[in-house]
């Protein structure tokens, strides 16, 4: 006598399959926040000093050009 073949295991009910989850892009920056040890305040101070110098030099140049026009008008 031969034994009957075993029946296959029951399969789960097939329903709507969930949509595939898209892969999240990796950030281009590190999520680790480091300490600046005061270097940011030095950079800000440098920017303020540079802007102040540009303003002063621009005003001196404008004064020099105004002086040239003043002298040229006399002559």
What is this structure's SSE topology?
Blueprint: H1 39-74
Label this structure with key terms.
mainly alpha; 75 residues
The rough form would be described as rod-shaped
Number of strands: 0
Largest sheet: none
Q: Radius of gyration in whole Å, from Cα?
A: 39 Å
How large is the count of helical segments? Answer: 1
User: Per DSSP, what share of the residues sits in E-state strands of 2 or more residues?
Assistant: under 5%
Describe what this molecule looks like in 3D.
The protein is mainly alpha-helical. 48% of the residues lie in helices and 0% in strands. The chain has 1 helix and no strands. The radius of gyration is 39 Å and the shape is rod-shaped.
Concise overview:
The protein is mainly α and 75 residues long. The chain contains 1 helix and no strands.
């Amino acid at each position: 006598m031969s034994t009957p073949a075993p029946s296959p295991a029951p399969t789960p009910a097939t329903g709507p399959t969930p949509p595939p989850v898209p892969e999240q892009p990796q950030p281009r920056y590190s999520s680790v926040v480091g300490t600046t040890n005061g270097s940011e305040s030095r950079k800000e101070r440098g920017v303020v000093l540079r802007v102040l110098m540009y303003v002063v030099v621009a005003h001196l140049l404008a004064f020099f050009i105004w002086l040239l026009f003043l002298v040229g008008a006399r002559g």
